[in-house]
Design a protein that fits this description.
2 helices; single chain
Length: 87
């Protein structure tokens, strides 16, 4: 079964959301040491989903950028400049 990058990205973000919701629900309903382990496993699974989504978005951006736009990076951002100090 072949999946496109867009579908894989949607699946990754769904995996992140589902694993976080499941882990939080179990850890809030069950008050034991096992709940901590379930929460940790859920967080790891959510990071995998986020990594998959990020990888798909990066690949889509690399494939769909115009040839003339390659290598263009906005270097000037006025919001990153330090604020002037009052004298």
């Amino acid at each position: 079964m072949c999946t496109g990058l867009g579908q894989a990205g949607v699946l990754g973000i769904f995996c992140q959301l589902a694993s976080l919701l499941l882990a939080l629900t179990v850890s809030l309903c069950v008050r034991s040491a096992a709940a901590t382990h379930v929460l940790a496993v859920g967080l790891v699974a959510s990071r995998f989903g986020l990594w998959t989504f990020d990888l798909c978005v990066s690949q889509l951006l690399q494939e769909r950028v115009a040839t003339l736009e390659l290598g263009r990076i906005p270097l000037y951002n006025p919001f990153l400049l330090p604020c002037p100090r009052a004298l």
